Hints:
Blueprint: H1 2-22, H2 26-35, H3 41-54, H4 58-83, H5 89-92, H6 111-126, H7 131-147, H8 153-174
InterPro entries: PAP2/HPO, PAP2/HPO_sf
Protein name: Phosphatidylglycerophosphatase B
Organism: Paenibacillus marchantiophytorum
Amino acid sequence: xxxxxxxxxxxxxxxxxxxxQRIQHFxxxxxxxxxxxxxxxxxxxxxxxxCALFGHGALRVAGFQALxxxxxxxxxxxxxxxxxxxxxxxxxHPQTIIGKNPLTDHSFPSGHTTAIFxxxxxxxxxxxxxxxxxIPLALTVSLSRIxxxxxxxxxxIVGCLIGSTASLVTVAMWG
Length: 175
């Protein structure tokens, strides 16, 4: 079992270093440092709340579903972060390239990734064509977390799973 865990950790670290160090570019530095905030609390709450309060029809319903999914998804995130206190990559790997004001709480799972994935599926369910924009956007936010040195790939994968599950269950239970 420990061989499997070591193998996984080795390959995850390699993937992290590739995204964080190998694909560095001036344009990507600025792009990812801006887009990452779409997964933050302010953006996800404001977008969902505005749609719920000011939207009409399916957009209004999607806004309420997104708020519910966002709330529900962060319960397991809070529990897991306390139970499995994983250090952020930049605290473990000194060569990590980081942006301004790096977070210091635990990295597993990614809260930004959880948040963005928790709010997109109600909007996709309401307007399926939005999947062409929202799913790549959510994946880009997730990738930004690795690029900025704040998360390992598994942090983002688990965040994606938690957010997507909360979102899809909310949409299914609503209907």
